[in-house]
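Hi P.,

Sorry for the delay on this. The queue was packed all week, but I finally got your sequence through. Input first:
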Amino acid sequence: MNKAGKGLKGRENNPGISLVVPAHNSGMVIARSIKKYSIFLSKLSAKYEIIVVCNACTDNTEQLARRTARQNKHVRVVSIKERGKGYAILKGFKSAKYRIIGFMDADCVFDLNAVAGMLKQLDRHDCVIASKWLDRHVLKIPEPLTRKVLAVGWKALTLFLLQMRFHDTQAGCKFLKKKAFDAIDKNFVCTGFDFDVELLYKLKRKGFIVKEVYVPLAKISPFSTFRLKFIPGMFWRMLKLWSKAS
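Then the structure:
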């Protein structure tokens, strides 16, 4: 038995895992990532599902995901018109059927062995989030300089506006107990790449315990749907969230 399965109370007896994969124009990576996620989850739990949410795709992402789903009963594909990571994750979370829910990016860049270890923390915490930055010097993180600058700036902004002391709010790998998600307000201001911040903020406001865990990247992916032009909108929505919280 995979050791990580024991951390989830055994592969056969654990509460099950629902993984949401937000996918916008991810045709070059989605089929491979679904297969990797399915192998990974099958080692952790006999009960799992992968919910691929295609948001405003204009490429072949949905077709490739549905082809994979026809070959794997654990995979479901949902398509929405709204563009935005937050919209996609909320759609997936609301339809999830298992007691542990989470999301991971469409390019599957994190070390899945480390993610399995991270999931063990759900025995003692309500939410666990991956961090590329925890206790690591910024220069030693294998990411482009632009991303490093943006990450440092975003960390400072979330600390200043919301007093959140996480090192890495934006890593695309987070898992939580469904009962925690069910307890928070679903009316989100941040529906793009800034969704993670509002999710963590709402969980903390409700008194849920969030654990940040260092999870290294397994690879540096050239694939990304993030664009610098999104930053003004993210900043504006953060200000709206701050004004609601004040």
